[in-house]
Each structure stands twice: as structure tokens, then as C-alpha cells.
Design a protein that fits this description.
The protein is an alpha/beta fold. The protein has nine helices and six strands; from the N terminus they run αβααβαβαβααββαα. β3, α5 and β4 form a beta-alpha-beta unit. The chain binds 3-methylbut-3-enyl trihydrogen diphosphate (2 copies) and magnesium ion.
């Protein structure tokens, strides 16, 4: 269906506040065309730009993109280096557009592990965009859900040892507050491209009640239409959070 027709079907008052995306399939897309994997990553940057702007246009407030996982460090060194270079180049190039579009950039993950140049560029853009309020773009870099949970548990244990927190009272709020994602609401919608139906160590704690949309489309080919389809799929779901369907209808 055409882009416009899909957009018209979207209910503007039920836009997911937070969308998280596992951007997968760059390598396979490149291979399909007979190119090196890095070509797919480059093409994937165009998809990122389009999805970021489309999300902001329809009123998404938080967009979290899984750009590089803890496990991705074990890929061939040449691919890791190329990805890091692509990250720096893209952030530098896209900063003016982020400003124009009122988008704030933030990161989650063990960014200290990234090359110094990457870190510098990232912190400059985070700083430059921090006053923007239309949408927050969160890049997950050197991130994994288990890493974040372990870090959070360590922080809580240290606070408990110092007597700042009573171990008997530790609850969900304490863990929420100690995670890298503390400032954000939990994702309402999680999208994964490329046909894989797994989480690959993404926001493990935060997606407890997220709606999940899997699509076979490879990330470099993920279009505005595909994004709208994911939103429509989400809007067709009944989010029950453990309640019965009747209970949910009473609230609405
Ligand atoms: C996703 O595409 C991007 C990153 C993980 C950095 P892949 O590189 O995983 O592409 P496939 O899954 O091998 O096709
Ligand atoms: C998940 O994709 C990580 C990112 C999209 C950054 P992978 O391609 O690394 O995941 P697996 O290996 O297929 O599970
Ligand atoms: Mg992959």
C-alpha cells in the first residue's frame, strides 16, 4: 500500500511513545548485491536517517536504535573498524539535520570502550543537541541488556555496602534507576528487521511488556511504508499487562 494510505490509517493519538529497533540484515543485503558487508552498513545509515525523521514526524518521543552490541566486538577487526569509522562520519555529517529536526542524541552502553575519536564526536553531538525536545534518539553502542543489568546490580550492591540502600527494600524502582535506560520510559514497540526472531541481548529488562514486530525486510531496505506497517501492527494489538481483555476495555 502507498505511504500516504498507510499514514492515513495510523491513529495519531495512539503513537507509541518509545520505539526500539534491532537494525539487522545489513551484511546479508550487501552480499545479495555482491558487495562487501560494509556497503550494507553504509546503506543502513540512509535507513537510519529516514526512520529517525519519520518517527519524529509522527510523534514518537523516544527512538532507541541497536547500533552495536557487546557481542559485535568479536566480529572481524576490519568490520569493527569500518563500523566505528562509519559511526564517526555519520554522526558528524548528520548533526546539522538533528538540530534542524529538533532531535536530541543520547547513548546507552559501554561507550568508554569505543575508540577515543568516536567518543569525542558522540559527546560533542550529545552536548550540541541536548536542548532539542521534539524526539530523543538513543543509540545503543557497545550495549547489551545483560551488561547493563550487571552494571546496575553492581552499583546497587556498592550503595548497599555503603549503607545508602537497605538490601531488604530493593525493588524494581531501584533497578530501573540504576540502568542506562533510567531516563526513558520502557519501549512500547520493539521492531526487528531481517527475519530473525530473537532479541540478541537488547533491552532485556525494559521489553517486559513491549509489543514485538518482526519483519523479513533487511535493514537497508526498511522503508517509510515498513515503519508505518509496524506502527499499524502495534495499534492493532491489545496491551493487557497481565489483565483480562474485559478489564482493559473498562479502562478505555
Ligand atoms: C546489523 O546488520 C548491523 C550490526 C549488527 C552492526 P548485520 O551486520 O548483523 O547484518 P547481517 O545480520 O549479517 O545480515
Ligand atoms: C543484533 O544483531 C545487534 C545489532 C543490530 C546491533 P546481530 O546481527 O549482532 O545479532 P545475531 O548475531 O544475529 O543474534
Ligand atoms: Mg545480524
Amino acid at each position: 500500500m502507498a505511504e500516504k494510505a498507510l499514514l492515513n490509517q495510523i491513529d495519531p493519538i495512539r503513537i507509541p511513545e518509545h520505539v526500539a529497533i534491532i537494525m539487522d540484515g545489513n551484511g546479508r543485503w550487501a552480499k545479495k548485491q555482491g558487495f562487501l558487508r560494509i556497503f550494507g552498513h553504509r546503506q543502513g545509515v540512509d535507513t537510519v536517517r529516514n526512520v529517525v525523521e519519520t518517527a519524529a514526524e509522527i510523534g514518537v518521543k523516544y527512538l532507541t536504535l541497536y547500533a552495536f552490541s557487546t557481542e559485535n566486538w568479536s566480529r572481524p577487526k576490519a568490520e569493527v573498524n569500518a563500523l566505528m569509522q562509519l559511526l564517526v562520519d555519520s554522526i558528524e555529517k548528520e548533526t546539522p539535520r538533528l538540530m534542524q529536526n529538533g532531535i536530541r542524541l543520547e547513548t546507552i552502553g559501554n561507550v568508554a570502550q569505543l575508540p577515543a575519536g568516536c567518543n569525542k564526536t558522540l559527546s560533542e553531538t550529545v552536548e550540541a543537541t541536548k536542548g532539542n525536545t521534539r524526539m530523543t534518539l538513543i543509540l545503543a553502542l557497545s550495549y547489551s541488556g545483560r551488561w547493563d543489568i550487571i552494571e546496575a546490580v553492581r552499583k546497587i550492591a556498592i550503595d548497599a555496602k555503603k549503607g545508602l540502600i537497605d538490601p531488604e527494600t530493593i525493588g524494581e524502582d531501584d533497578l530501573n534507576a540504576a540502568l542506562n535506560t533510567a531516563r526513558y520510559p520502557n519501549p512500547d514497540l520493539l521492531i526487528r528487521t531481517s527475519g530473525e526472531q530473537r532479541i540478541s541481548n537488547f533491552l532485556l529488562w525494559e521489553i517486559a511488556y513491549s509489543e514485538i514486530h518482526f519483519t523479513k525486510v533487511l535493514w537497508p531496505e526498511f522503508s517509510t511504508e515498513d515503519f508505518y506497517k509496524a506502527i499499524l501492527d502495534y495499534q492493532g494489538r491489545e496491551r493487557r499487562f497481565g489483565n483480562t481483555g474485559d478489564q482493559i476495555k473498562q479502562v478505555v
